[in-house]
Amino acid sequence: MTTALITGSTAGLGAAFARRLARDGHDLVLVARDAERLAEQATELHDRHGIEAEVLSADLATDEGIEAVATRLGDRRNPVDLLVNNAGFGNKGRYLDVPLADELRMIKVHVEAVLRLTSAATGTMRERGRGGVVNVASVAAFVPRGTYGASKAWVVQFTQGVARDLAGSGVRLMALCPGFVRTEFHQRAGMGTDNIPGWMWLDADDVVTAALSDLARGRSLSIPDPRYKALMGLAKLTPRSLLGGISSKAGRKYGPR
Ligand SMILES: NC(=O)c1ccc[n+]([C@@H]2O[C@H](COP(=O)([O-])OP(=O)(O)OC[C@H]3O[C@@H](n4cnc5c(N)ncnc54)[C@H](OP(=O)(O)O)[C@@H]3O)[C@@H](O)[C@H]2O)c1
Question: Which residues contact 13 (CB under 8 A, 6 or more apart)?
Fold first, then answer.
């Protein structure tokens, strides 16, 4: 029996991680801001799968919230074996349309929280000689895409770098880079999605299945779908200037209304 801590567990990809890990018999620490939703989720997962589900209501855009989760990750009496840094959000609008405070909030949640929670978790995992961290990034990490893409590019670079630094310690790290996934993400950001072609959408449960299989294989980067693997292969061959143009146009077409 092992314990997994999932940030942003109450919706979308985080909820899919929680369902799958509970089904596999792992105890869970569920983290998000909405305490009521967390409590309902914990009860449901406990009743359905017989696992222990602890809740931790924390806002990862604040120092106190990050500190509370880091403290839980550092608890050596109740160790966490798998950390899924998943909490995240989008901001509607292009650069300069988005208030600077919202961009900074994104960096706090996508970058600072991921750094501090990864450090808290891997510290104790290294002492025990085992553990795993999945940091949820995005395919947006590979194209010029404002603060969102830049924050996810940081997640990929950071995770792959740390994975190499900790190689041989028994602690695995992996950056997960999905394409469009049907979750609450776009609706919460007030982004229109009607014109995103059907073939581009991924199912959250399928993304989690692919991610856990890539983690088990020891991969430090997971792009969980052949369609997006092909697209990212193509992106690598495309000059940055052209990629920037395509990304900006796609942002207009598929992104925020
Ligand atoms: N959906 C996509 O197309 C897509 C594609 C690529 C990557 N991603 C990435 O996947 C991750 C999960 O996104 P999703 O699509 O599953 O989004 P989602 O359905 O909107 O779920 C977001 C989750 O994060 C929590 N959360 C948001 N802000 C938080 C904060 N400040 N502190 C603590 N928890 C917070 C939310 O709960 P509370 O509101 O209760 O806090 C919720 O549980 C994100 O990192 C996102 O960037 C998404």
Answer: 86, 136, 178, 181, 183, 204, 207, 208
pTM of structure? 0.96
- Sequence-separated (6 or more) residues with CB below 8 Å from residue 233: none
In the chain, where the domains are located: 3-254
- pLDDT tens per residue across span 34-61: 999 999 999 999 999 999 999 999 999 9
What CATH class does 3-254 carry? Answer: alpha beta
C-beta of residue 223 within 8 angstroms of C-beta of residue 177: yes
Q: What residues flank ligand 1, with Cβ below 6 Å?
A: 7-14, 32-34, 37, 59-61, 86-89, 109, 136, 138, 178, 180-181, 183-185, 188
How far, in Å, CA of 185 to CA of 110, rounded?
14
Mutate to test the pocket of ligand 1, among 17, 29, 89 (most ligand atoms within 8 A of CB): 89
Joined tokens for residue 215:
């983690």
> Cα torsion for 143, 146, 149, 152, to the nearest 10°?
150
